[in-house]
Amino acid sequence: MTKINELFQEELKIINMGLQSFNENLKKQNVKTVQVDWEPPAGGNKKMLSWLDKLK
Amino acid sequence: MALKYLIRENTYYDSVTLMIISREVKKIEGVKEVIVGMGTELNKELAGNLNLLTPELQKITPNDFFISLDSIDDNIAKKAFAFVDELLSKKKAESEDYQPSTFESALKYMPDANLVLISLPGKYAAREAKNSLLNNKHVMLFSDNVTLEEEIDLKKLAKQRGLLMMGPDCGTAIINHVALAFANVIRKGPIGIVGASGTGIQEVTVMIDKLGSGISQAIGTGGRDLKAEVGGIMMIEGLKALQNDPLTEVIVLISKPPDKEVARKVLSVLKEGKKPSVVYFVGGDPEVIREYGSIPGLSLEDTAHKAAATAKGIPIEDFTGFTVIGIDKIIKGETKKLKETQRYIRGLYTGGTLCDEAMIILSDLIGDIYSNIPLKPEGKLSDINKSYRHSLIDLGDDEFTRGKPHPMIDPYVRQERILSEAKDKETAIILMDFVLGFGSNPDPAGEMIPYIRKAGEITAKDGRHICMISSVCGTEKDPQNLIEQEKKLKKEGVIVMPSNAQAVRLAAAIVLSRRKST
Known about the structure:
The complex is a heterodimer of chains A (56) and B (518). Chain A is an alpha+beta fold and 56 residues long. Chain A has helices at residues 3-8, 20-28, 46-55; strands spanning 13-17, 32-36. The longest helix of chain A has 10 residues, at 46-55. Chain B has helices spanning 15-26, 41-49, 55-58, 74-94, 103-109, 122-134, 148-161, 198-210, 233-243, 260-273, 286-291, 300-312, 327-337, 352-366, 398-401, 412-423, 444-461, 482-491, 500-517, and strands spanning 2-8, 31-38, 65-71, 115-118, 138-141, 165-166, 172-175, 178-181, 188-195, 215-220, 250-255, 277-281, 295-296, 344-349, 370-371, 391-394, 427-435, 467-473, 495-497. In chain B, helix 6 packs parallel to helix 7 and helix 13 crosses helix 19.
């Protein structure tokens, strides 16, 4: 079975990154979620960001 | 003029929250102009256009929060700044749950998460999506402004790992009966959908529900998936998943006309899969669909009818009529009320695909249609803010939503526009869609009613009557409730049709009947 078909049989558990309202709507549907309190990584500095990505 | 500004470095809030706060602050008496936002180039440009840009604001970065405000005096500015903070802290208090600050810490908190929903600014979104896929999580990417190259990379990676990569620019999906981003509450059933169009999926799923059937899954791909460059990667993976899904008996595919080669590729996948399928290439050629053994849909509604009939095992017929009793009487009655000068339809749409569908049906029935998203280049409006002849406007298109929330969230653009259409003596019919479901405005009909009334007052002054026709894309189980929304519109004299296609056909019938009578 592919992972997509496995997903169809699982309970959805969602990480929400971005609009808070999407997270609130998921909670209204009793979906387990975690909202990321996101901020631009590396203070939005592109050069720093690419270094960080290389370090991974 | 009292120009006041405030900058908070390295403080991030999401754009929808800030755009809505901007609108709330502008309602304060004494506030002339205001912008509350992050220091993006776009926001600085908007601030410049409103004469709200100071040299200090010019220096800020997209990571800095700012307010810039022009008010009649400093006290009003103080009051407005305090109000912004009040709204921001209210927003924060709404969610008391623990909120990790990175994807990695979220993953530690919920290691068994299986899907990541991303609606971050485009330039960061692809990076987070890739990170999610590398951690074996399915992704729905709502953000736009992701490059085509990034989209191809993400989808290839997802395919390699057997994961869903819905989007970028994927507005609607229903996975395991959970409405993701903009989606409706739809009955469970045997129809599985893969769509490259948000409101297209919404209208088809809603119509399936209205017809008493239901859906197994609705997978979104984002609008570019069937372009030659992307090659339908996610459409094909989605179709295969539905073919392997025991709960899916009928498959529906919705997309704008794809690249020819890609069309053949996806249709071959459907053919090999053996499950019956209905395909609607919005405005595309139905012949190639028949050639591959799928059933072509003629509209979003007809697609739903054919899918529901297939699922129920009843004969499949084209549906291009009306389900409303007494339609002839409505047509005659409305035609009679129109004055000599009133000749044209003005469609004020919040849903892009609903606007496309309307243009396709109308151009077949009554001829040339003008728009900001025209079917043919010669139909492009020279000024998108001014309708010309039969004009259908997609108010959710980029030109209207720069720095503003989408009209499905905040109907402000349509509120303004309905008044200018009412002033135009050539307007005969105003066509409107109301999209319900999670993600949308909590009361889209209610938001328009004061403006529908004002439009009525404008026309009544010189003895005109504009025929208002609408359709509500929603179900009784949606948070806004279909019946309640329809009731509100009917109370104001708005004709409410059961689908966008029927609303459009009614508008065309009135125009044709008027042509005959003059």
